Amino acid sequence: MKTITAAVCALSLSFGAGVGLNTAKAEEVKVPVAQQGQQDIQVPKRGVSKSHVEQKFGTPNNVEGPVGDPPITKWVYNGYTVYFEYDHVIHSVIHHG
């Protein structure tokens, strides 16, 4: 019985030691947040009204919302999305890729 236990332990150790030999390796590419997306694209600034955004940037390609309380509306343009709370911009996000 001791011989079988010793053989199983030895087999387990040799199998476990070989598991780490076939690990894949990959290069990690880090891009600072400030360098992501297009740098030259103009987006609406926080606090401006919907009417100002439409006047300056045109009609959006798609409008979603309002949703929730406070109501959040999303206007999607080519290259960026603008989020409104009630009638004012709260955030503009540049699309990646």
User: Kindly state the mean pLDDT as a whole number?
Assistant: 82
Spatially, the strands of the biggest sheet line up as 1-2-3-4
Query: What Rg is obtained from the alpha carbons, in whole angstroms?
Result: 28 Å
- Assess the beta-strand content as a share of residues: 25-35%
- The run of helices and strands is HHEEEE
Provide a count of the helices.
2
What separation lies between the terminal Cα atoms? Answer: 63 Å
Helix and strand composition category:
alpha+beta
Strand tally:
4
Low-confidence parts, pLDDT < 50 over ≥5 residues? none
Binned, the helix content reads 25-40%
Q: Note the overall shape.
A: elongated
Largest sheet: 4 strands, antiparallel
Ordered list of secondary-structure elements with their pairings:
Elements: H1 2-19, H2 50-57, E1 62-67, E2 72-77, E3 80-85, E4 88-94
Antiparallel strand pairs: 1-2, 2-3, 3-4
Protein name: Phosphodiesterase
Organism: Kangiella taiwanensis
Keywords: Signal
Tell me about this structure.
By secondary structure, this protein is of the alpha+beta class. Helices cover 27% and strands 26% of the residues. The protein is built from two helices and four strands, in the order H-H-E-E-E-E.
Short description:
With 97 residues, the chain is α+β, with helices and mostly antiparallel strands. Helices cover 27% and strands 26% of the residues.
Provide the descriptors you would attach to this structure in a database record.
2 helices; signal; alpha+beta; Phosphodiesterase; 4 strands
